[in-house]
Specification:
Elements: H1 7-18, E1 22-25, H2 29-34, H3 41-55, E2 61-64, H4 67-70, H5 73-89, E3 93-100, H6 104-115, E4 125-128, H7 138-147, E5 150-156, H8 163-166, H9 176-187, E6 197-201, E7 219-221, H10 234-238, E8 245-249, H11 251-254, H12 260-278
Parallel strand pairs: 1-2, 1-8, 2-3, 3-4, 4-5, 5-6, 6-7, 7-8
């Protein structure tokens, strides 16, 4: 299996050339309705491919949320396959938001489904859950290294239920989230210009000053836009790690459809505000 240039290097270049914005594709029923589309596979395809047409040639990253495609079964997944192919053809990186997490051969199977170059859903990176123990991700880490792909590991998420696990304190005095970040720093050690193993850290989590975000890898930051965080908040939230932040905006862009021009204008506005905020 031939390896690509490491994901971290490709992501750093894309962020430097296009800005660090990630646009999420979240075709849930309410957004389809806002666009005047039916909640069916035809509406799903029209919505998703319009977003790709509008923004994939100008942003660093596109992040499809797999659940909203899976709910339509095999025909929805077929739409997602086309979205992935068209996004990559337009020059954006694909981060598949599937949040997979399991052990052994099952985790290896998930990794093959998203990180193998011959897989229909072949993506540049995959979101994964470490809450069966960080070591359970080893098959995905190994395949990502082998093929030049990346992972974004859930670390400090913005949902209100997250802290009961992520802020739990281990016997060694570290929180679970801090342990995840430390593992990522170890997996990224020595990589330049950026490691390929990132953390998901919500832009709305609050005070992160007690956490070491210097993991030498990217920080995927949902929460900008409709969830309440603004580009101007990013330096305060992420401190010295802000240059490695990939802010994700979904509804803040998507609600400006269905016209391509509206989607592009919203994307460019967020991109400009993020560049100004992080000094990109």
């Amino acid at each position: 299996m031939s390896a690509l240039e490491p994901f971290g290097a490709r992501l750093r270049r894309a962020m430097d050339e296009r800005g660090p914005l990630c646009v999420g594709i979240d075709p849930h029923a309410s957004l389809l309705a806002e666009w005047g589309l039916n909640d069916d596979v035809t509406g799903l395809e029209r919505f998703s491919r319009t977003v790709v047409e509008a923004v994939a040639d100008r942003v660093a990253v596109i992040k499809p949320q797999m659940a909203f495609f899976e709910r339509f079964g095999s025909r929805g997944v077929a739409v997602l396959e086309r979205v992935v192919q068209e996004t990559r053809a337009a020059g954006a990186l694909v981060v598949m938001d599937a949040k997979r997490g399991d052990i052994g051969s099952t985790m290896a199977g998930y990794a093959e489904a998203f990180l193998h170059k011959d897989a229909p859903l072949f993506s540049d990176a995959l979101t994964v859950s470490p809450y069966l123990g960080y070591g359970s991700l080893a098959p995905a880490v190994a395949l990502a290294r082998e093929t030049g792909h990346g992972l974004f590991v859930l670390a400090l998420t913005s949902n209100p239920e997250g802290p009961e696990v992520q802020h739990a304190v281990r016997a060694d005095g570290r929180t679970v989230a801090a342990t995840v970040l430390a593992h990522l720093a170890a997996d990224n050690a020595g990589e330049a210009p950026l490691g390929s193993f990132g953390a998901v850290v919500g832009a709305t989590v609050g005070d992160l000053s007690s956490y070491d975000l210097a993991i030498n890898g990217p920080l995927l930051a949902p929460g900008v836009g409709a969830q309440g965080a603004t580009p101007a908040d990013l330096p305060r939230v992420f401190g010295s790690a802000v240059r490695n932040v990939v802010p994700n905006v979904s509804r803040g862009v998507l609600r400006h459809g269905p016209e391509v021009a509206g989607l592009r204008a919203a994307t460019e506005r967020f991109a400009d505000e993020i560049r100004a905020a992080v000094g990109a």
